[in-house]
Amino acid sequence: MSTLLPISAILPTRDRSTPLWRMLNSLAKQSVQPVEMIVVDGSTTDETKQLCHTSISGLATQIIYNSAIEVGAATQRNQAMNYASQDTIWLLDDDIIFESDCLERLWIALDSDPELGGVNAMISNQRYLPPGQISRLLFQFLHGRPEVSYAGKCIGPALNLLPEDRPELPEVVPVEWLNTTCTLYRRRVLPQPLFPSHFTGYSLMEDVTLSLIVGKQWKLANVRTAQIFHDSQPGDHKSNPMILAKMDLVNRHYVMTCVLNRRQPMDYLKLAVLQLFGIAASLVSVQGWLSLPAVILGKMSAIKEILTGYSATGNEV
Length: 317
Fold this sequence. Notes:
Elements: E1 3-13, H1 17-28, E2 32-41, H2 47-52, E3 62-67, H3 73-81, E4 88-92, E5 96-98, H4 102-112, E6 116-123, H5 133-143, E7 154-155, E8 159-160, E9 172-174, E10 182-186, H6 206-215, E11 219-230, H7 236-239, H8 241-259, H9 265-282, H10 286-307
Parallel strand pairs: 1-2, 1-4, 2-3, 6-11
Antiparallel strand pairs: 4-10, 5-11, 6-10, 7-8, 9-11
């Protein structure tokens, strides 16, 4: 039987009972498990609720089910924190599969270094790839200087790059940001609430915001040998190019200005260059061209929202 660790796992979910079932079965096979998992469910059916009340062979973790007061990745995680009882918080997505000893390796890494505020797992199917010549020039411009590797960094106007997995690297690699896919945090380092009210719906870049705030006073790291497979699920929020285009610009601008405090003219120029590069890169496919009008509308809507001052409601960090 798995050893229970003093960890509160918090999990937002919505209409994804099948991926969640796979994730829970994967957790049941881990060498260690969290003492509790707080599930905040925004589903339109009772399938997830029924799953959370079903016994799963090998799963010793107590599942604490709650219906979402407000639907959205960040807001559901904020709600889950109200029920968490442990001093270590495990942020999870519902569509991941754990590889052997993933949680144990994360726990050992965090416990072994008191200066670490948070550690995350390596996503085996989403890794850093060395940039090509054009991308490297872009990264150098955004970052202000060349680097041998930009893996795990958050450069320029909040461009966050994945960590890399190479055999010659140490098991625990310092990084500048952490995702919310599979990440352990010390509870005392976390802001309250976890995420500002600025982040709604899909909540793009809420993970970058949280980790950059923690990273101002604590070290962050990626544990290469703690691995997961991210079986990313489709959704309406991912299929609407206008909404995604708007959210990307609005939220990246928020992180750039309110978290990183980068507000100089050059910072805005870098943000504009990054947005234009993203649009141009999408045009290598037919779908990119078909989505172009919606993307432009989304960017225009984002500019309007930024100019009208979305942070006037007190969301600045």
